[in-house]
Every structure is written in structure tokens, then in C-alpha cells.
Amino acid sequence: MLRPPLIGMTLAMWLWRIIGAIALFGLVGCGGPRPEKGASCTASPQQPTAVTMPFAEGPAAGSAPLLSQRRSTALLSGNSTLELDKRNDVFLRDLLDSIEHGSGPYHVLALSAGGQWGAYGAGVLAGLAAANDVPDFSLVTGISTGAMLAPLLFMGEYAEARDLYTNLTEADIYRMRSVGELLIANSLVDTTPLRAKVAAIINQDFVDRLAHENTERHRVLAVQSVDLDAGTSVIFDLTAVATGRDHPCGDAVSPRDCILHAVMAAAAIPVAFPPEFINGDMYVDGGLRQHAFSLKVMQATVRRPTMLRSYLSRAAGPLLLTPDSAAEPSARPIDLTLIANTDFVVAPQCVGNGFLKIAERSAGVAIDQLSIGSFYRVMSETLEQKGDTARFTFADPKLTGCSRAPSSASQSGVIDAFDRTYMRCLFRAACTLAARGADIWHTSPDDLPQSPSVEVREPLATFARLARPQPPAICDIAAE
């Protein structure tokens, strides 16, 4: 099977395959009834709730209130608008509190999507921790596999993250559905095994410690999903849920169960994995929109906190955030660390002359480019503000020396396999390099592959030299 280097675990490949399957077998995947929906998804002739749209006419009578009940609008500059889902307001308030309880650079860790390449991100942070070189991250964010990693790395549980990503097998993640199940299923696989593994990590003690980090140290942990009904990104502030200040899953759902729902939603690859229903809304993998958190709104929060707090206190109206506006006296510079859980490799392939093979390969190339664009945007948005700093790293094969077997498809032939040998190599290389202070960091978005310019490196010799000393114990994972 072709292995496109996807950030969201071959998301697009699954989408193309299911489209073909639907064309051939129209009855497959019809799905069952949805959980009871709220008014947010019911088309009705009522007018939307009050929302200010400075440069657009309001929706016509008879339109569904789905989007208008969910969004507010922020004016960035000129006639350019940024739509903010109101469900993100709790996160923004928590972010304001976090910023106002500190001084100096505001350290942010962004963990991207990437499936098994999460082993690289886990290794980098474990290596930095072994060298006592982890910044005091006030904000940790994650999407897809990054959402699985984020709680562990937020709490400094590097050994647990290592064990998760170096021992993971397909059986730990999903069970293939039978042909009979597929007739009414909403996904190709059943992710009950993954849910059980996440539930074992997020126990009540874990939730209590999350709450402590937020109330005592004003740190924030957030994951991002996509509301497939509304088509918008929604941020789940896991620390606000842990403290009981936010109830995105409803008052009847415990904080622990709600955090589990949120993490599963942030990693629910559409078509492949079942969507997560929260309060009747359908949520899927945050990588469908972005491969890492966009920082535009966070920058506004950090640079103009008083303005944002005033905006959040209003029921409606635009937020005026001109990018070149002067920062408030209480502004803090952002220091971003971005872990791109990918190798950015699009290996040459002899593509089969069939529409599924062509679609599969095209989707792989497109998603690779989409991930590059997403990371480029995050880096650029950070560095465009004076005083802000940003760095990123990715699983460059020239740097890690790791390569996958030519054939690494799962038994189903549909899902890209989790190659444990490859993941162990990724973790050990990333951990050792980070612990030894190797040059794994890039500070310009132009360093991304396929960017306008690419920095030329010769890292293999560096890795060989650094690998000779005994690595820290946490890095010592033998390949199988």
C-alpha cells in the first residue's frame, strides 16, 4: 500500500477510499441514527441570534441557525474577518488569566497531528527533560496525535509518553469492523481499544492534578477538534473542564469523562475513526482544519489582554484587532515551540492506473502540502510580531536515521500501520538528539520543506557523533 506522509494518520487516503467504496457499494456505511440533537443543528425559519457582521449582509430568512448561534465575529484588518466560535470563549478567558499571572515570555508548546510520528514529539520532550532544558510551558496545545500526547507532556509524564508510543500496536488502537457492521457504521474501524487506553491514563487522580496546575500555577492545556456540523474548529480547555469551570459535555457528565470525550474527539479521524458526539454535536479530528493551533487569536490575547477581556464581556459586536496596533503595557512576548510530528517525506511511487490509486496518491501529496502550509502559517503569525520567538522541529530522516519498511500496511490494507520498530527508532533518536543538545531546531518558516527556501544541513554526522555516548536512560529504547 502507498504510504503518503500524512500528518493526520492518512486521513485523506481514508476519505478517498470510502468515496470509492460508496460509489461501488451504495448501501455500505449508511450509518445509524444520531444522538438527539439540540437546536444548533435544526434548520428552522427563525432568524439567527444577534451577531455583528461588519462587511456582510445577514442571512436570509428561512436559513438554518446552525452557524449564527455558534459564532461571533472578530475584525482583524480592513474588510478581513475572523470567525470565532463562542465555545472558545472559556479558553480565551483562561488564557487571559494565565497571561496576567506571569511575566516575561509566554511559553507555548504546540503538538501537531501525525499518528505514529507522535513518537518523535514524545522523544524530543523526553530528551529535553533529561537535559533539564524544558521551558516552563504555560500553554500546551494538541491536535490529533498531539491531543493524545498533550496531557502527558503537560504533566511532565515523559516515561508514560515513551511507553505509549514505543509499545503501541494496531490492536491497541482499533478493531476492524465486519462487513455486516459496515452496512450501518459511521467509520471503518471501532476505536474501543484506544478509548480504553486513554481512559486508563485519564483517571481521577490525573484530572485532580490537571486542576491543580491550572488553579495554582495558572497553566492551560487545550486540544482542538472540528464540529463537523458547523464546520468550525472548537477548542476544548481541558484544565477548565478539570476545575469544573467549563461543562462542554453537559452538567451531567463528569470532568473526567468529558476530558476523555474531548481527547477522543480531537483524534477522531473522519471516516476511519468514529466521530465523537458531545451534546449531540458531531466532532472529528482537529487536523481536518489545522495541523497545529493557529496563534492569531492567542497573539491578540497576549498583546492586548484588556481589549480582549472587554470584548468577551459583550454579548455581541466585533473585536477590533488590527495587527499593527500597539501592544498594551501588560503585553508579553510569545515563545513558541512547535513539534511537527511528521517526516515530510513524499517518496517516489509508481502509481497504479486506477482512480482509487490515483486518488490515494494525490491525497497524500495534498495533505503533505497542507501540513506544510499549516506550520508555515503558525510560524509566520508568531514571528510577524516584534519580540515574539518561535522554533520548530520535525522527524527529518536525515537527522534521525530512521526509515520505515517499504511495506507497512495494516492487515486491512486500508489503514497505514503503526510500525513499532520505526516508532522506537524515532523516539530514541529524538530523545538522544534533544538530550545532547543537537541542532534539531529551525527558527524560520522558510526552513519547511517545499517552502520558498530550505536550509541545507548535513545532520547525519552530527547524530552519529552524539549517539556514541550512552544516552539518558529514558532514551534507551531498543529497536525490535
Contiguous runs where pLDDT drops below 50 for at least 5 residues: 1-9, 23-27, 43-71, 73-81, 407-415, 456-465
Beginning-to-end CA distance, first to last residue? 22 Å
Q: Largest sheet, if any?
A: 8 strands, mixed
Q: Could you say which structural class the secondary elements and strand pairing correspond to? A: alpha/beta
Count the DSSP helices: 16
Mean model confidence by pLDDT: 77
Strand content: 5-15%
Short description:
The protein has 480 residues and is an alpha/beta fold. The chain contains 16 helices and 13 strands.
Protein described:
The chain is an alpha/beta fold. It is 37% helix and 13% strand. The protein has 16 helices and 13 strands. It has helices at residues 11-24, 89-100, 118-130, 145-154, 158-167, 179-182, 192-201, 204-217, 238-242, 255-266, 296-303, 305-312, 355-383, 397-400, 420-435, 459-467; strands spanning 71-77, 80-85, 106-111, 139-142, 175-176, 189-190, 220-227, 232-237, 276-278, 281-285, 319-320, 334-340, 389-394. The strands form 3 sheets. Strands 3, 4, 7, 8, 9, 10, 12 and 13 form an 8-stranded mixed beta sheet that branches. It has a 3-stranded mixed beta sheet with strand order 2-1-11. It has a two-stranded antiparallel ribbon with strand order 5-6. Strand 7 and strand 8 (232-237) form a beta hairpin. Helix 3 packs antiparallel against helix 5 and helix 5 packs antiparallel against helix 15. The longest helix is centred in the last third of the chain and has 29 residues, at 355-383. The two termini are 22 Å apart.
